[in-house]
Amino acid sequence: METWRNLICKANQSFRAGDWKSAESQYLTAMERIDHLYKNYSDNEQILMAWLASYHNLSELYGRLGRVDAQLSHIMQPYHQLKNRLMTQADHEPIYAAILHGINLSCKELYLYQKQQLELSGGVNLKYQQQVFH
């Protein structure tokens, strides 16, 4: 887990500096590391959240690069995996809440992606939408 954390820190630094190739390379390496851990320790909440963060970091990077298919893919892959896990997971197990939280985070990422795509297409000017309170 420490190796993953170090890779993510370096990738984030590259991202902030606009060094997209380095950021992508380090994010992908970090994802390989966390994928291995996630396959072996999928009930570990910390590993699950790190796995999800890896996907969302790559999604953000691909969004900056204009690679919208890759951006969407890195939102939807973890969403579908977590949704499938939720359907088979007993709701009394500790990991259940983490899975729900992960799905919530993925839904927020999907919303931001859709909002960005609508704004870029000129289909909807979101600054004129009124906020709806429930």
TrEMBL record:
It comes from the Bacteria. This is Tetratricopeptide repeat protein.
